[in-house]
Amino acid sequence: MDYVLPDKLVAAAKRVLDANREAGRRIAVAESCTGGLVSAALTELPGSSDVFDIGFVTYSNEAKQGAVDVPSDLIETFGAVSVAVAWSMAQGALARSQADVAVAITGIAGPGGGSAKKPVGTVVFARAERGSNPRDVVADERHFDDEGRGGIRLQAALCALDLLMPGANPLGDDQAADETPSLP
After folding, report:
1. Which of 30, 63, 106, 154 is 20 to 30 A away from residue 69, measured at CA?
2. DSSP 58
3. What is the sign of the dihedral through the CA atoms of 170, 174, 179 and 183?
4. How confident is the model over 144-177, as pLDDT tens digits?
5. C-alpha angle with apex 114: 111 to 117, nearest 5 degrees?
6. What is each CA distance from 18 to 66, 101, 167, in whole angstroms?
7. Is 184 exposed, middle or buried (0-12, 13-18, 19+ CB in 10 A)?
8. 101 Cβ neighbours under 8 A, 6+ residues apart
9. What does the pLDDT look like over 97-134, one tens digit per residue?
10. Per-residue pLDDT for 82 more than 80?
11. Handedness of CA 143, 144, 145, 146 (dihedral sign)
C-alpha cells in the first residue's frame, strides 16, 4: 500500500491493531508533543475503527485541561511534561472514551523549549487500563537522542505504540512516581 507515514511507524501501528483486535480491546490516545502522529499511524490502516476509538491532540495546557480533564494545579505544580500530567491525560482519555486502554504522551520535541531539568528529547508516557486501580500508575520519563524534532516525535510515537500492546509493558514494572497526585 501507499502510506504517508514511515514504514516502521505503520508496521508498529499494524502490530498494535492486530494484537488489540485479537484481544478484543479498543484503544485511545492523548497526544501532546506527537501532535496526532500516533493517531495518524493507527488510522493509516484500513479497518482500524474496530480497534481505535479516539485520539485527543492536547498540545496546549488549556487543551489538556478541557479535552482530557487535566487539573490546572497538576500543570502548575509539576509542569506539562511530567508523570503526573501524563498519568492524568491517560486517565482522562480513558474516561472520555469507550476504550479499554489509553496511552498519553507529553514532551519536548524541540528545537527549543528545553531546560537543564527537562532538555529537548524529554518525553513522558502513561498508560491507563479500564478496570484497573487508578492508583497503579504505569508511567515513565524517557530521554530520546536529539535527532531533531521529527526524530524525537517518531521515537515517542513508536514508544507509545509499544505501550498499547496487550500484556506488554516496555516501561518496566508499574512505576508509581513521587509526583503522582493523591487520590481519594
Report:
1. 154
2. -
3. positive
4. 986 799 999 999 999 999 999 998 665 554 444 4
5. 155
6. 31, 15, 14
7. exposed
8. 20, 25, 26, 27, 28, 94, 127, 128, 129, 130, 164, 166
9. 999 999 999 999 999 999 999 999 999 999 999 999 87
10. yes
11. negative
Strand order of the β-sheet with 52-57 is: 52-57, 27-31, 101-107, 122-129, 138-143
Q: Kindly give, in sequence order, each residue whose CB lies less than 8 Å from that of residue 117, ignoring residues fewer than 6 positions away.
A: none
How far is the C-alpha of 33 from the C-alpha of 115, rounded, in Å? 16
Q: How far apart are CA 167 and CA 10, in angstroms?
A: 21
Q: Which grid coordinates belong to 118?
A: 527537562
Angle among Cα 98, 84, 10 to the nearest 5 degrees reads 50
All 3 cell numbers of residue 127? 498508560
